[in-house]
Amino acid sequence: MPAFLLDDPTPPDPRRRWAELDPAARGACYDNNAGVPDSAAQVAARNAASAAYRAARAGRLDIPYAEPERAAFDLYPAGASAPCLVFVHGGYWQRNARADFACFAEGLNAAGWSVAMPGYSLAPEASLAAIAAEIGASLDWLAAHGAGHGIGGPLVLSGWSAGAQLAALHLGHPAVAAGLAISGVYDLAPIRDTYLNDKLQLIEAEIATLSPLRVPVVEKPLAIAYGTRELPALVHDARNLHALRAAAHAPGALLPVPGADHFSILNEFRRPDGLLVRAAQDLLGQGLRGQDLLGGLR
């Protein structure tokens, strides 16, 4: 066995013995708030920093892209032709809002990038299929109308936690050059057996068609990031998705962020030299080179 596998500090995937776990143990596999001792303090600090960042850049907020109330963008443009990171927030598809994550535009804006943050409807008011469709509609809107709001450059689609699932699912959208999935859940089947399903009410078709680990691989670049202090289920989902894509020769790095937990990992968006900012920059180069190659082959 290779030495790097022998030295792997990540605990085994608890879902390998899923049938042996009681409901509480299954829920604990995905309970990021309980898994990070200072999660409440981190969330409070994030929300306060986001409120300040959003208030200072109030010119292009709450722009609707579809009919549902939460289907709106906060845009932080850096120039009409600047590259843009589209960031989809998390919250297990049933909590949080785009406004809570405004501070994570800071590093990219300082690096000369625009940032677009779409909101979306939450469960149980919307099914996961409807939520996923809203993200597709948000990308359609950006492609058609973004330039009129200062967003005209190439798009890198990113998301965190539940937003990573939504981002990975829409990598194939024609407006997207590349993707950056952070701390995501990529197989929905175990979620159905936890407290999270009380509001989601997942059906078999959603598990089959909305799980990035179960749908066809898109060959655009997708970097997959996770914190080394994440819950084991999320670490293994990240590794499994990267392995699936590598087996299909799809480009994109696996990015373990040393010492980061499920919440602190996003601080790598707060500085222009943060690891996630640099990952987005690298992905854009890969994505544009891939588009040029395909254009030449046609």
From TrEMBL:
Alphabetical list of Pfam families matching this protein: BD-FAE
Domain annotation BD-FAE-like: ranges: 80-170
Protein's name in the database: Alpha/beta hydrolase
GO molecular function, one term: hydrolase activity
Gene3D superfamilies named among the record's database cross-references: alpha/beta hydrolase
Record keywords, A-Z: Hydrolase
Keyword presence, Amino-acid biosynthesis: no
Keyword flag Hydrolase: yes
Entries under InterPro entries matching the protein: AB_hydrolase_fold (IPR029058), BD-FAE-like_dom (IPR049492), GDXG_lipolytic_enzyme (IPR050300)
